[in-house]
Amino acid sequence: MKLIERISIAKLTIAQMTFIFLSFMALGISMKINGYPENYPERPWLPMALTLRKFGLLALFVPLLLSVVSFYCTKVDSKVDFDSVALLSVFVTIGLMIMFVFYAISPYSRPLMMAS
Question: What percent of the chain has pLDDT over 90?
Fold first, then answer.
């Protein structure tokens, strides 16, 4: 049973890291299409979109860290359950993907133009 759990952890980690990387690339493509490095001061980029663009690949460590914890839970009889850690890692990855995709859809703010 432990070998099957470890293989499933590895598959889950690879899938999560792939989804996060693809979301990071989607954000980069979206910002590049909108002219990110060239017209940086002119366009009001959202601060979170800029942060995700600069440090977004650090999000790859989240599934990696949770997989290490899951491996530890399967190897040692610990109080933390494998299923709860796997479920937590899936929810965290879905949250990161939603955040990346949201900022890929709208990386800069569009203030309302009011006629005077």
Answer: 2
Q: Does residue 108 sit in helix, strand or coil?
A: strand
Q: How far apart are CA 104 and CA 108, in angstroms?
A: 9
Cα(80)–Cα(89) distance, integer angstroms: 13
Residue 55 has pLDDT above 70, yes or no: yes
106 phi-psi bin (left φ>0, alpha ψ -120 to 50, beta other) = beta
**Tokens describing residue 29:** 């493509």
Supply the DSSP symbol for 45: B
74-93 tens-digit pLDDT: 777 767 777 777 788 888 88
pTM for the model: 0.76
The predicted structure's pLDDT at residue 116: 47
Query: Around Cβ 66, how many Cβ atoms within 10 Å?
Result: 21
CA distance 105 to 100: 9
**Residues pairing with 45 in the sheet:** 108
- For 25, the token pair is 């690339």
